[in-house]
Amino acid sequence: MSLSADGFNGSQLFELLGAGLADETLKKKAIAGVKAVIVITLKNKEGKEVSWLLDLKDAGTVKKFEGAAPKGDVQLLLKDADFVKLAEGKANGQKLFMNGKLKVKGNMMKATAIEGVFKTLDPRPKL
């Protein structure tokens, strides 16, 4: 199942997460660091919403959902462009939250772990 979604730049980052989770060592590290199911719902410029479920509690998988968002330990809601900045380390999750650009439902402490997940699972070479 493809993790990409037309009109969402952030979908490429979920493809990278999926590739990172294919490595058993990285998967175990991510699960140990988060221990939660995180649902990330992105809204694009056209107002369309797509959700991705990151199971970093048991399975170490990423799944895409269109329509109603699935349930998780924590749900993050933000614009596609803000998500890309967050995942690439160009934006701070705390600042996005304080400015109302990131909405969090559920376990707030688990939400803070998402930035570390992207750093851990990003398969791109570090320069």
TrEMBL record:
Domain SCP2: 23-119
Gene3D superfamilies: SCP2 sterol-binding domain (3.30.1050.10)
Signal peptide start-end: none
EC number from the UniProt entry: 1.1.1.62
InterPro entries: SCP2_sterol-bd_dom (IPR003033), SCP2_sterol-bd_dom_sf (IPR036527)
Pfam families documented for this protein: SCP2
UniProtKB keywords: Oxidoreductase
Source taxon at top rank: Eukaryota
GO CC aspect terms: cytosol
Protein name according to UniProt: Oleate-induced peroxisomal protein POX18 (Lipid-transfer protein) (PXP-18)
Organism, scientific name: Scheffersomyces stipitis (strain ATCC 58785 / CBS 6054 / NBRC 10063 / NRRL Y-11545)
